[in-house]
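Obj: model holo form, ligand = manganese (II) ion.
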Amino acid sequence: MAHYVVADVHGEADRFHAMLEKIRFCADDTMYILGDVVDRGPDGITLLQEIMQTPNMVMLLGNHEYMMLQYFSPDASGEEIRRWNRNGNAPTKASYLKRKAREQRAILEYLQTLPTHLELTINGRNFYLVHGFPAENVHDEVWLRPSMDAPNPKPGFQVIVGHTKVLSLIKPEKERIAFATDLENRGDHLKIYHGPGFIDIDCGCGYEMPIKKLACIRLEDMLEYYQ
Ligand SMILES: [Mn+2]
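Output (holo structure tokens):
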């Protein structure tokens, strides 16, 4: 009966499945997936269809699913077409277009139902789950990025986000390569970031980085898993 959270799987189905094995995910448990299942990695659409068919997997909208919905909308603007095209959509678009029209429709209809945030209470602790950062509208909740020391916008809740890779959050651009190389040389990897106002669990899936991991957190005891 445990509750788990992952984010930003970005098409890395093998890593996601290995994580399910690692935590011995079963029918009594719930997996919250904080968006960005698609794009960058190879298996986004397959993974999305698996999540759609698994009642105890609860997905939130990420900016990549948001871009996909805009792209396939009948009144998509030129900028909406270009935006998804320049954000790693190639494997997602190719496998989506291979699906039957009925499956394509089911995928888009599912994405349209996804919330941008969820509030939960587990063992008396309140959680606010969101892809980008808590905000007042869909666009901002999937796109916003906090700074490391951002205060908690939802007092009384533990805010958990994805979207902003921990490496980009904790290091300015010019220090990232040296930091990543050092971590790699020590056989280490990116870890979940615990800030004063939020927790960021995006450890870089879908990117070409030896130090990337899929991170998962168990809400009952905040135990962290890496795969
Ligand atoms: Mn994102």
